[in-house]
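Human: Here is a favour to ask of a fellow structure person. Comparing notes only helps if you start from a blank page. I am asking you to supply a protein in sequence and structure-token form. Write it directly below this note and I will take it from there.

Assistant:
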Amino acid sequence: MAKNVDVLSTPLAEVATKNVVTIGEREKVIDALRKMVELDIRRLPIVKDRSLVGIITALDILDAIYSLVESGDKSLYGDVYMRPAVEFATRNVITARPDITVGEAISLFLKHNFGSMPIVDEGGELMGIFTEWDAMKIVAQAGFPHQVRDVMTRIVYVLTKYSTVMDALEGITVYRFRRYPIVDERGKVISMLHVKDVLRYLADEATLNKAREGDVDEIVNEYAINIAKSPIFLTSPDDYVTDVVRKMLEYDVGGVPVVDRESGNVIGMVTEKTLLLLFA
């Protein structure tokens, strides 16, 4: 337990991501989308003259796309892709000073239900960013004795092989689940859809061409299983959290389905966000 206490008292600047990838306030949504896909990240601080003016996340972009499609509008390319990213970004960003502790930062994560916190100096200049992924690295090293059953969420939404990209967008934006097991008729996991799979699909040149031509229905009616490219592994309630987190870091995934050993059916999920509860 002492090791965990030491981790929580560590200054945030020591464990945060230092080389922060940013975009300028004039860059478009498509620029942000491409950068997220290229660098496998889900959020981008927006800066002007090195000072933070906002942050745009994968969920912000998907919210904008889902809202437009749901309204029946076909101008996806002009009204989302080509708009300045700052229009869809969070402007009043909760930030941290570099000397606050890991424990204080995670308490803010849990209180406000967000997954990242830019670190700024007294003048508002961006110095780094602390994310759920950084917190996962701490979990992997902290030696928590917990099992998966202690941190898994038992609220699980699944997709089937007939679910569409629109179904996934609805789940991500309305229910705020960032990853979905795709199951067969028996309830067995056959694939895994993550937000980054959806981002990759929406940034693909073929999808962009359809958006330019107004073929929005064709974009969102694609089967979700056809765009699910993320690695998949499963865990069970008796597995140890530290082992699972290390594998999540190895596979570069932020969520793992928990399955019943006897039936093989999904009974829960371990995600970056549920792992934060270890620090509560």
Remarks:
- The two ends are 13 Å apart (CA to CA).
- The chain has a mean pLDDT of 93.
- The beta strands are 23-24, 43-48, 51-57, 116-120, 126-131, 159-160, 179-183, 189-194, 255-259, 266-271.
- The CA atoms of residues 137 and 249 lie 8 Å apart.
